């Protein structure tokens, strides 16, 4: 398959450069071949991941405890102590991340029209791009250090739902963000057990602990790669496309593997449970599926919103709308299984159902990413200005109303006479919970993306809006989460990283002769570079 490219600058110059580079054996694998060959995209993504890995060694999060191997050595000083090294690593991090995004976009273009057989290629790309990140320092977030501290709390006989990590000696040097200093744990009993096991096995040594937590995230990735194509095939969607748009998405590699978030396991268990919940399933199969969904709740309790739709999956396919008697029966079955699993987990931790009040009270801070959080503070400020009340109680009331609205919307989705597709309804319920929360983090998008991807193939503005959102979240994540020594100006490092990231984004969206075609609003811009809008040059060598 050939692709027509404009001959005007800068597209013509780029095409000429690609032809010259593609003639050399060393660079042919990266820039040579036709649009039907996927190897160039895979290798470009690998290079992006390698750049991220190297960049993380300079600006990734590093614990400074005496048990840290890297805190006791000077081997990384050129990258972490010298201003030039820090700036270079920040640039490598943002360039590598956006190169990974571009490789992902190009892989999708190369596989267009071949999604039915694209599964193995997409899976291979996902693992290839994730591999270098296994030895990266945490980037885009340092929540993993709070995981370790909460495991330490539980191991010390304290209650992470009532006791704070600031009670631990040396907690700050262990790498936790100060936002967790006096916050209850938002995680379920299963993940607290995992965190305690990691603390016990590593003795709190950061580097081995990071590796174990990363293996937990990789287990979630493996579950997603197993579940997504099966769900897509079951619901009549292209499996390769569903995996590409959700699990092979660079946000997954960056925020789940590089940043080491337990959301990977949460989503993986939920999707795997959905795979087993089929109409007419045997009691053993449905039990296994509900156990997996319950284990997802035991990682992050928010997925309790998926429980009614897990039951509706067992009824999907029956003629007409599910009868109320059938709904009550499967929902009772769901509650019994989930209750048994969560009770068992609570008994193992000794904390029982302490996660329920913690889930309802956590998230007191408002983040700039959360419009509803800002709305709550704004209402609190307005009421305070008029009535002289304090801002915080009013904001908390707004946040409580948001939680009630999310629960009400979930109930409506489950109780409506003609239910929405159960997996799509799960995505909508989680999306509502995210949008109505005082805190939104970039990786929350990955909670809902697989749910939307397996039920139908999306086209048009939702897709190219997602592409833009991915790039924005990548640049924001890099700029917001840079670990820089106190004697180096964090402001100017951030400005540099942001400038490089925005420049590369402009290139991908407006100037790149390949990826710019994904964004229809750039058509007029692309046509300006052509001396003759009807003149095209056919080029079979593609970047």
What does this structure look like?
The protein is globular and about 70 Å long. The model is unreliable at 1-7 and 531-541 (pLDDT under 50). It has a two-stranded antiparallel sheet with strand order 1-2. Helix 5 packs parallel to helix 22 and helix 12 (263-276) packs antiparallel against helix 13 (283-299). It has 23 helices and two strands. It has helices at residues 11-22, 25-31, 39-59, 77-80, 83-111, 119-130, 143-155, 189-202, 206-234, 239-246, 250-258, 263-276, 283-299, 307-315, 324-349, 355-361, 371-387, 391-415, 422-435, 445-453, 461-480, 490-511, 523-528; strands spanning 3-6, 536-539. 50% of the residues are buried. It has 543 residues and is mainly α. The protein has one domain.
Give a nutshell description of this structure:
With 543 residues, the protein is an all-alpha fold. The chain contains 23 helices and 2 strands.
């Amino acid at each position: 398959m050939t692709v027509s490219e404009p001959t005007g600058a800068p597209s013509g110059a780029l095409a000429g450069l690609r032809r010259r580079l593609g003639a050399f054996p060393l660079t042919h694998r990266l820039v040579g071949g036709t649009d039907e060959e996927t190897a160039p995209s895979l290798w470009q993504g690998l290079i992006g991941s390698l750049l991220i890995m190297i960049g993380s060694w300079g600006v990734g999060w590093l614990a400074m405890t005496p048990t840290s191997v890297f805190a006791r050595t000077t081997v990384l000083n050129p990258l972490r102590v010298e201003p030039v090294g820090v700036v270079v690593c920040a640039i490598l991090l943002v360039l590598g991340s956006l190169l990974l995004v571009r490789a992902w976009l190009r892989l999708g273009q190369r596989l267009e029209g071949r999604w039915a057989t694209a599964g193995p290629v997409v899976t291979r790309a996902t693992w290839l791009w994730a591999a270098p990140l296994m030895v990266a320092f945490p980037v885009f977030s340092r929540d993993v250090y709070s995981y370790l501290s909460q495991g330490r709390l539980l191991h010390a006989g304290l209650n992470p739902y009532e006791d704070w990590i600031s009670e631990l000696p040396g907690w700050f040097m262990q790498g936790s963000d100060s936002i967790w200093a006096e916050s209850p744990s938002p995680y379920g009993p299963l993940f607290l057990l995992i965190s305690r096991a990691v603390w016990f096995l590593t003795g709190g040594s950061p580097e081995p602990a990071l590796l174990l937590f990363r293996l937990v995230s990789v287990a979630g990735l493996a579950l997603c790669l197993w579940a997504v194509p099966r769900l897509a095939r079951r619901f009549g969607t292209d499996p390769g496309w569903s995996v590409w748009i959700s699990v092979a998405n660079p946000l997954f590699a960056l925020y789940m593997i590089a940043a080491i978030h337990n959301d990977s396991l949460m989503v993986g268990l939920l999707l795997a449970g959905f795979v087993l919940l089929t109409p007419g399933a045997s009691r053993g199969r449905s039990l296994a599926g509900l156990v997996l969904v319950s284990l997802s709740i035991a990682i992050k309790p928010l997925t309790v919103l998926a429980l009614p739709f897990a039951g509706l999956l067992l009824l999907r396919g029956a003629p007409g709308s599910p009868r109320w008697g059938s709904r009550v029966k499967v929902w009772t079955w769901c509650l019994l299984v989930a209750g048994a699993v969560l009770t068992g987990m609570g008994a193992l931790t000794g904390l029982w159902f302490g996660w329920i009040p913690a889930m309802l009270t956590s998230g007191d801070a408002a983040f700039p990413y959360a419009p509803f959080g800002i709305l709550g503070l704004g209402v609190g400020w307005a009421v305070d200005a008029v009535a002289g009340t304090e801002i915080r109680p009013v904001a908390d009331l707004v946040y409580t109303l948001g939680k009630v609205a999310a629960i009400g919307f979930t109930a409506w989705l489950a109780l409506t006479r003609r239910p929405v597709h159960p997996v799509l309804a799960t995505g909508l319920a989680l999306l509502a919970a995210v949008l109505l929360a005082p805190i939104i983090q970039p990786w929350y998008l990955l909670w809902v993306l697989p749910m939307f991807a397996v039920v139908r193939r999306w086209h048009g503005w939702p897709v190219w809006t997602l592409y833009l959102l991915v790039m924005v979240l990548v640049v924001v994540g890099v700029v917001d989460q840079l670990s820089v020594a106190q004697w180096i100006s964090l402001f100017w490092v951030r400005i540099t990283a942001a400038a490089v990231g925005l420049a590369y984004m402009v290139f991908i969206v407006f100037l790149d002769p390949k990826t710019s075609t994904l964004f229809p609003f750039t058509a007029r811009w692309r046509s300006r570079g052509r001396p003759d809008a009807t003149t095209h040059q056919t080029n079979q060598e593609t970047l």
